[in-house]
Write a structure and sequence with these properties.
Order of helices and strands: HHEEHHEHEEHHHHHH
Largest sheet: 5 strands, antiparallel
Distance between the termini: 37 Å
CATH topology of the largest domain: Beta-Lactamase
Shape: globular
Radius of gyration: 19 Å
Number of strands: 5
CATH architecture of the largest domain: 2-Layer Sandwich
Strand order of the largest sheet: 2-1-5-4-3
Number of helices: 11
Helix content: 40-55%
CATH class of the largest domain: Alpha Beta
Strand content: 15-25%
CATH superfamily of the largest domain: GAF domain
């Protein structure tokens, strides 16, 4: 199934816009990406989700995969509450049918409509009734992009009550828009400290990292964040250690995918 010329042109313009954004602003790029695709497929709500494989336990219903960072667009009042409850349930190894199906397909780029991804029984289950209909969500579209064998991005777009379900043509638009953006997928995960870092980054570490990648001197970073130069320098050393680099140049090269 092909994407119309008009939508291809809009997607190509989006790619150009994303390429021009500074590497130090991955969240800005992510917001732009989510909202532009949402406009193309008429979606008013959705999110980006980071999924990490924390173990290789074959007895785990989730095969070691767990949800971590999330970023909504068109956020609904109950979104954060539902997300926290969902993560707690998943951390206990209690997946819904959709999540269970997804983890068994991990490791490859994939795009799917909800209706093609789950059984009819899902629509009568507690998860769909509470977590979907409870927020006015009636349909969902997924595009999942692996970074490596232990890390994936979920790009999720929803239809709300009163809207028609997604079409295969709209699924293809989302798939086409995201398929060539592995470089941005990498940057997004780097910014959250979930790729090539020894541990996830704290909010302050993410702020310092953003300014480092923008080329700011440590003194300027300290002034901007209201820190002492010593405190900022300690954050910089921590970031270098977490990403296993020795200099700002090595950190930037890692960010941009250079050897």
């Amino acid at each position: 199934m092909s994407v119309s010329e008009a939508r291809q042109a809009a997607i190509h313009a989006l790619w150009d816009e994303l390429a021009e954004l500074p590497a130090s602003q991955p969240d800005t790029a992510l917001d732009c990406l989510l909202n532009r695709i949402a406009d193309l497929i008429d979606s008013d709500h959705g999110y980006w989700l980071c999924s990490i494989r924390l173990s290789d336990d074959a007895n785990d219903p989730l095969l070691g995969w767990r949800a971590r960072s999330i970023r909504f667009f068109g956020e609904l009042p109950a979104d954060q509450q539902v997300y926290v409850a969902t993560v707690k349930r998943l951390d206990k190894g209690i997946p819904d049918e959709s999540t269970r199906n997804h983890v068994h397909e991990a490791g490859r780029f994939r795009a799917t409509l909800l209706v093609d991804h789950i059984s009819e029984a899902f629509y009568q289950g507690e998860h769909y009734i509470h977590h979907y209909l409870g927020r006015g969500i009636t349909d969902r579209l997924f595009v999942v992009m692996p970074v490596n064998q232990d890390l994936e991005s979920y790009f999720v777009f929803d239809r709300l009550r009163g809207q028609a379900d997604f079409t295969p043509e709209e699924l293809e638009v989302a798939r086409y828009a995201l398929r060539s953006l592995s470089w941005l997928n990498r940057q997004i995960h780097l910014s959250h400290g979930q790729f090539m870092a020894e541990a996830p980054l704290t909010p302050t570490e993410r702020q310092v990292l953003k300014h480092l990648l923008a080329g700011s001197a440590e003194k300027c970073i300290a002034d901007t964040l209201g820190q002492s130069p010593h405190t900022t320098h300690e954050y910089v050393k921590t970031l270098f250690r977490k990403f296993n680099v020795r200099s700002r140049a090595q950190l930037t090269a890692l960010w941009l995918g250079h050897d």
